[in-house]
Amino acid sequence: MEFSNIEESKGAIREEKENGNEINEIEESKVRLMRTFVEREDPSVKEVDDFTIRRFLRARELDIEKASTLFLKYLSWRRSFIPNGFISPSEIPNELAQNKLFMQGADKQNRPVVVVFGARHKPYKGSSEELKRFVVYTLERICARMPAGKEKFVSIADLEGWGYSNSDIRGYLAALSILQDCYPERLGKLFIVHVPYVFMTAWKVVYPFIDRKTKNKIIFVENKRLKSTLLDDIDESQLPDVYGGKLSLVPIQDV
């Protein structure tokens, strides 16, 4: 779970405010109010840092009631879905064997870069529950490797070679739900590249379930502008070599 020393997180938030970064006094006040409310409902919240509470607040436009509902639901989900506090590679052998998700380098804002290859997803080789565990395993590893002071990651979803055998609407919706409801405000930007026309059929089904904040972070990239678009956000020294950069891909389980 995304727990850390509470006093350290409060100090870091104060430092953000002093530095004129994203935090402001309204957010700081609402973090305190939300903490007071959710701690009454679930005493384990005392171990949750202020950054986590702030992410849930931001995901619900600083509406304390809505953010608290989402957060308490997340805590309950986490206790049942991840009773040991982590997902072991032994719980997701079929997903890891597909070798479809990688993490290396950082963008110009020092956010980790994650690459996923959609054509390597084989829904018939696993189960929906294993896919959910894989999504959680991936997000946990990404969050655990965030540089100090960073909360978000950047992703490149590469759909080259994607076809109907890779289509998994139920899986996409499950992954989206986990990202938006359990790891809100973790995604910084999503580049969707090498998009085949047939993918748009699946996209039209998934799109209505994407919340407004997430939609604003998604960019479809034209093939002819692929490298230049990625270089706007990611330095060549940090860009994966498959896109003309300098870094080799590293499987998520090896990070």
UniProtKB/TrEMBL annotation:
Residues 7-20 have a biased composition (Basic and acidic residues). This is CRAL-TRIO domain-containing protein. Residues 89-251 form the CRAL-TRIO domain. SMART domains: CRAL_TRIO_N (SM01100), SEC14 (SM00516). InterPro entries: CRAL-TRIO_dom (IPR001251), CRAL-TRIO_dom_sf (IPR036865), CRAL/TRIO_N_dom (IPR011074), CRAL/TRIO_N_dom_sf (IPR036273). Coiled coil: none annotated. Residues 1-21 are annotated as: Disordered. Pfam families: CRAL_TRIO (PF00650).
